[in-house]
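Posting this for the archive.
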Amino acid sequence: MSAVRAIVLTGFGINCEEEMAAAYRLAGAEADIVHLNDVFLEKVRLDDYHVLNFPGGFSFGDDLGSGKVLSNKLHYRRLASGRRFLDEIERFLGDGKYILGICNGFQALVKMGLLPNTSGTGTQEVSLTHNDSGHFEDRWVRAKVTGDGRCPFLSGLDLIDLPVRHGEGKLVIATPEVREQILAERLNCLTYVGQDHAPTAEYPQNPNGSALACAGLCDPTGQILGMMPHPEAYLSLYNHPDWGRKRRLDPDLSEDGEGLLFFKNIVTHIKETES
């Protein structure tokens, strides 16, 4: 097949686009950083890509809540042709393609109703709101993959260290019914864990107080993944604050960062399915 192609959206306060594009390039894909307006004006078509990416940042300054203005813009905006952008996303997913949202991108996806979307109607069922700590969290956490393997970004991953940097990362769930559906379908695919490697509500291991210790959600198809930690910020072993000790304990340890595995996974999966 031809190269896997990733589109990385930017504009309106998104500021992690370079790291995300670098992650795909290091994973063997082509990555284009594209301003959202160029998509809305149909200068760039989603059809030309395999993975649609919503990076982190501070879209619209988070003035009305993180990701809220961006989610409304994405949900209601019409393209130059008059078609809804949301219809383009639905067609993109209908073609078996993938979406990744990290931090602010995750916030936008849940507020658009794309995650967890247990009802299949695109109705908002959860939100991400202010951390219980009351302040911005900028440090490393340990997370565990807890899904059932349907999301190819997470294939073969278990425990992983990742950085977080957010002020509104606490998952809240609209109803007990949605909570039960998330658990029943194992959509709570990435959790914050403590020293015993079990999901935890305790601070600081859980940096925000998320329900279900949630660090990431997928949708029922496994095609959409949203997560608060930043895998694109851990592309090299030397990004890790404790890399020296890790290397001393294992001199043969790869110089790749664990975060790069998310991107290698999806690139490999697309290549295998396309071929």
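The radius of gyration is 18 Å. The chain has one domain: 5-274.
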